Amino acid sequence: MKYKRILLKLSGEALMGNQRYGISPEMVDLYATEIKKVVQLGVEVAIVIGGGNIFRGMQGEKSGIDRVQGDYMGMLATVINGMAIQSALEAHGVYTRLMSAVRIEQICEPFIRRRAVRHLEKGRVVIFGGGTGNPYFTTDSAASLRAIEINADVVLKGTRVDGVYTADPEKFPDAVRYTQITFDEAYDKNLKIMDMTAFTLCKENNLPIIVFDMNKPGNLYDLVMGKEVGTLITR
Q: Can you give the residue range of the structural domain that contains 25?
């Protein structure tokens, strides 16, 4: 086993499956199944999930919603998604804790770093909702920040593509996938892996990122076992 403690970043859009919005029960169950496999290995798993399937703050601006208000709406959307993942994991017999940077005591615990680490040490999957708790920061930034705070070995960014390409593979069929790339090379090539704040946090704290296809069964398991899956971004 290569990684003992991981931070898994999932996009809210990934939960839609083939739907136009909302949460697909099939996708949530798939993710819960994949996460359970690595938990059974003894891997400590933390999760940050986006809220784009429900609400995206930047888009809210276009409808006349204030940017800060929209960002807080997005944070609440991440808590809803976190509850869905929590429910699916517990249906599979996995112990979980949902923690939020925005206090919602009836639903989840407030984020306290030492408590989060203790939950991980006890084998519980910790789901971080509410982003960073601040407007103007993405859930990518939340993932990088939480990973650093809990001393994760790696950030695993689960997407619907199998890594980082020279161009968008959905638009350019001749795009080539990188197996490994440095932070500086990604900067220079202007590759859109994470937003700049999140990316810089990982670089400065020497925290590797792996971008991989979360929708392919077995990928997450193979990754924590040290197999070459997706694209590794390191110093």
A: 5-234
